Amino acid sequence: MESSEESTRDGAGAPAERGRLGGLDGIRGVAALFVMVHHCWLMSFPGYPGNTGPGWLGWLLYGHFAVVVFIVLSGFSLAVSPARSGWRLGGMRRFAQRRAWRILPPYWAALAFSLAIAWALVPQPGEGAPTAKSVVVYGLLLQDLFGAPSPNGAFWSIAVEAQLYLVFPLLLLVLRRAGAVVMLGVVTVVVAAIGLLAPGVHLVGMLMRLTPQFAVLFAVGVVAAGVIVAGERVRRLPWHWLALLAAVPVFAVIVVRGSVWTVEHYFWIDLALGPAVGLLLAGVATGRPAVLVRLLDLRPIRSLGSFSYTLYLIHAPIVVAIYQLVIAPRVPVGLPAFSAALALAVPVALLAARSFAAVFELPFQRHRSWPVLRVAARARLSRLRAAVRPAP
Do residues 103 and 92 lie in contact, with contact meaning Cβ atoms separated by under 8 Å? Predict the structure, then answer.
């Protein structure tokens, strides 16, 4: 969920030679916005996974697919720089430090923010007030391993992504020595075996808490990043049309089988949807379709992508608090409540996320260590004091 420029540097610890890839930040921004609107939908139309809202809004039920996009895009973005360096990581320790520096400060700040809202205003739907165990489990990113009252409904995927960072060096090693097909094939076979055995084998079933299909999605993103260094013949392939061709059967199944069946089978639906997302990213990275790339690279959408990680992290407690305390007591459930949530909760969450990111996310993107960050902070404070100091 981090910006594309930042993530292309983190893979090998050096700036990407070809700069920012247009469109990727826009995809992040749109996906984060979709997740937030999805949560507004959930609050307004009870009965999930059944679709109790109007049919023309039924697509908002599937906020989970935005996380699918995030995971594939995460693998893609992290792999761009290694792909340009012969699929070499550039040092595991440095990679781990950069990932922790980039991911943890906004996450821990969002955790404190979420805990404060849950304790002082309203907890997350279906959850009790967070406990000391919640603080420990969520603070250590172990929420997919241990149960505890959640302070934030969006935090579940952050633990999964952090665990994928641990296997990223291994994926690159296999890819470099055996090739992309072997790497992706091995990951897919292992994950598919888990999915097949989980219903009948308890120990294997416990692995489903880790959302293992996301490992395949992450690997798909890593492989798709190879288009960056591919020959011109490969880069000229109609990746966006191939993406559409891969997505149509998946969406046809969703339409035919309905939302309840789809949610119950997210494991297999995610696996089927992953290749379409990877193909789309390959298309966007090669500048096609040009209309979509230009749209995603418009300044407002690109700006939204620059703080999409923070938006993802803090929107849920804001949406829940505004809906439960302001909208629910005054507005009828259903379309009126949904409209009110769009009018009130979405703008407040966007403004809060932009301000939150200015303190807890963007400085950690721009400055790579505590000494550099401290120097930058002192310089900024000096400029602010000079600006407010009265003239003699």
Answer: no
CA dihedral angle for residue 360, residue 361, residue 365, residue 368, rounded to 10 degrees: 30
> pLDDT tens for residues 163-173?
999 999 999 99
Alpha helices in the chain (DSSP H): 4-10, 24-44, 64-84, 92-120, 132-139, 156-178, 180-197, 202-206, 213-224, 232-235, 239-264, 266-285, 290-296, 299-306, 308-322, 335-360, 362-366, 370-388
Handedness of CA 167, 168, 169, 173 (dihedral sign): positive
Q: How many other C-beta atoms are found inside a 10 Å radius of the C-beta of residue 342?
A: 15
Place of tokens 């807890």: 360
Residues 158-215 have pLDDT tens digits of 999 999 999 999 999 999 999 999 999 999 999 999 999 999 999 999 999 999 999 9
Q: How far apart are CA 89 and CA 147, in angstroms?
A: 34
Q: If you write DSSP's letter for every residue of 168-227 in order, what string do you get?
A: HHHHHHHHHHH-HHHHHHHHHHHHHHHHHHTTT-HHHHHGGGG-THHHHHHHHHHHHGGG
CB 168 within 8 A of CB 161: no
The answer to whether 81 and 225 have CB atoms below 8 angstroms apart is no
